[in-house]
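Researcher: Here's the sequence for the chain we discussed earlier.
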Amino acid sequence: MSASLSRLVRVSAPCLGPGKNRYLHKIRTQVPLSTTRRHCSPPPVKESFLFRLRPCIVSVGYRSVCSVASRTVSSKRYFCVGSSEIERNKMPEAPRPFQRLPRTVKPLHYNLSLVPDFDTFTFKGEESVRIEVNEATDKIVLNAVDLSLVMAQVSGENIAPQNSRNIEMSEADRTATLKFDSPIAKGTHTLDIVFNGQITDEMTGLYRSKYVNEKGQDAYAFVTQFEATDARKCFPCWDEPALKATFDISLVVPKDRVALSNMPIKSEEPKGQLVKYTFETTPIMSTYLVAVVIGEYDYVEDRSSDGVLVRVYTPKGKKEQGLFALEVATKVLPYYKEYFNIAYPLPKIDLIAIADFGAGAMENWGLVTYRETTLLVDPQNTSAASKQNIALVVGHELAHQWFGNLVTMEWWTHLWLNEGYATFVEFLCVNYIFPEYDIWTQFVNDSYIRALELDSLNNSHPIEVPVENPAEIDEIFDEISYNKGASIIRMLHHYIGEEDFRKGMNAYLTKHQYKNTFTEDLWEALGEASKKPVGQVMSTWTQQMGFPQISVSSTPLGEGKGAKLTVAQSKFTADGSLASGDYKWMIPISISTSRNPGKEVVSTVLTERTSEILVPDVKETDWIKVNPGTIGFYRTKYSAEMLMQFVPAITNKTLPPLDRLGLIDDLFAMVKAGHTSTVETLKFLQAFEDETDFNVWLSISNILVRLSQLLGNTPYRNGYEQYTKKLLSKVYARLGWNSRSGETHLDTLLRSLILGRMALLDDDLTIKEARSRVESHVKGDTVLVADLRSACYRTVLRAGGQQEFDTLLKLYRATDLHEEKDRISRSLGSANDVKLLKQVLEFAMSDEVRTQDKVFVIVSASVNCKGRDLAWDFFKDNWPKINKIFKGYLLTRLVKHLTENFTSEERALEVEAFFQEHSAPGTERTVQQAIETIRLNAKWLQRDSAALAAYLT
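Model: Thanks. This is the structure I predict for it:
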């Protein structure tokens, strides 16, 4: 799925505050505490009971966390964190363990026919599956859920046809068991099934997506979303990634609808007011990649230079909005063909915009589905940031056509192979197509830093998470699988070099095409190509949680002999504590100096906990930079003397942008961990007042937002806002409001960023200018530039009241561009009036906001200091409805952003108690991460509060 998952949730956060304690009293009696042991030998067994617990995930309400492995001793499960072990007592019994499908029968080919009904939102289905029976059996177990199986029959050349005498549906296991009177002999046979199902609006399986057609009428498209395990909602199947098969698909649909699937249409057969479309046979593929779309669409088309037919499908009357994505796709396909040295294996690829879509996009082979906001570009109303994001998402999903579709992970434990690699490659291809984006520098803010932040928590998880039950999968579609995965691949790419990387990728894809793989298969191919110990190095990054901190000090050697660096590795922890586990990494280390900032003077692999490195040809006054380019996935902690040597190079910008960015982000991480003070960092940031680079400012902005959340309800909040205004004053004055001739793409992004920060600082000049521009836009006199709209909307609403709120709602209702609706609805939470914030929350849950967007409207209110408690109370008061509406990714995002910015132990206990009482399957890890973050915030504020008060007042 799309790497844009995390991008969808970005909301600038002005501040936050503590709240009431409705659930505090429950935590003391209802939340059992864990006991920690220092060794991994099992503690004595006190009582015997069985329970299932998600590997490496601790049940909500338990304070410790498992990071690496779990194992069962006697009848208990123990969880190891490095060398410490946690005993879970007093857990309720749970259902029997999940089991993958039996391998006695496997599918070879599906002949699938679907007949959907647009009036009743139901469908009829028939399938004829060629199966291979590996050993005689009188039952067939396959996946099916929310389906009614009318008939099942087995037939073959050497066996008489026999109907299943009994069909047992298991909702818990999401399976159907077909039982027969006599055993089915070993060999190849045919399984015929007739079934019926519902077309819901839940955005999984075969679902309906509502839109307004050209006549202004409500209409529906039928769409599939099968990843991870929802193909079984559409047709009975062996719904596991390793059980690949080929597919012949036919659809019987109204003749005025477009019908699409993975392959081109082979034949059309009129049936009165209906048409039966039969599609060509697919390659062998996993069920989660099967796709069907039926609806009213326009399209634009072109052929790539290597002959692939590319179409971008859009809502009726909007086909020009597909031209940018078409341009990107037709360039990406030949780029990947050359990069992998393997041609795209299908004759066509369709990209289609879906009105209701839970994720950002989905890489179905030959038919890629997208949210409208991640595919459509309106030249007058799409911002530069949105356009760039669309290029990345298109690049991501098309990378999956090779890495994920052609070669597929064996099981969901290896999900990161799909997502981490596609996230890395999307930046490769966008850098090739749009070099002016400086996209690799943006990668550091967009992916690398986000992964570091999450992975520093005790409640993180390794890249390779042992997934047993597919119900666990939603929680690993996160920054670790996507962004840490991409970051360590980027580090590996740098370590072995571009040529060997490409050679290894070609060998991997060629050897395993149309098959399934494990992580070790990738390491083997890259190791053979580079002649480097790739598997040995990379296993230290994928199989253990977290990442290292490199502590560096320098000793001058004198007489032109350079300097001796003493470097020590340890696990970086968000709370600054010493990690209890036996953590050690093999770390690719590079070093540059002020003598030649763009050149690596040292490149080595750190294998020991402490080492000495000679840096030649440096004077005592020269700066020495570890991790130039911010490529290695670790934090660097410099001695005070080394850190201060960077200040002149920051001011005169001789330190490259990526190094300026990495330096300040590492320093801020040390602040949050308690290794240095917040005040010292605020002083250090003043060296960046004359900064001109967008990416450096984006990193600074993220720091300012984080501090705004922390200090939002403190007495010195106003002092902090004055500090922020002063820090931004020079870049604000330099950029102004209007673009100038010769400005770059990054200048446009920087102006949007700075004005977005100023929008939340109650600056009189900003308010005056924003009001003027919005008024002119509303009157129709001058169209407000898309790149400035979000900042202007937030500014006028924050400074205004009901009238401004109503004006924005009118704009929302008047537009049919999803991007503009998103922009407006996510600005509503900037209101200063609590009454308006209540209206925002009510609006979010109304029918005017699509289910996929409701979360982000609620979040927009929650990141406002005046809306933090309000949104949390709203969430609790409406929990039954919220729990019913939001599933998977959407629910975890909502839980995360509503809770993680509180700043008191009281709130941590309350959040813990609420989720102990209210079950939210699939959010367990997210809740634990949020609780940990709240406690980190509380300690941080307590630790630095006095010094901040003195500095800011």
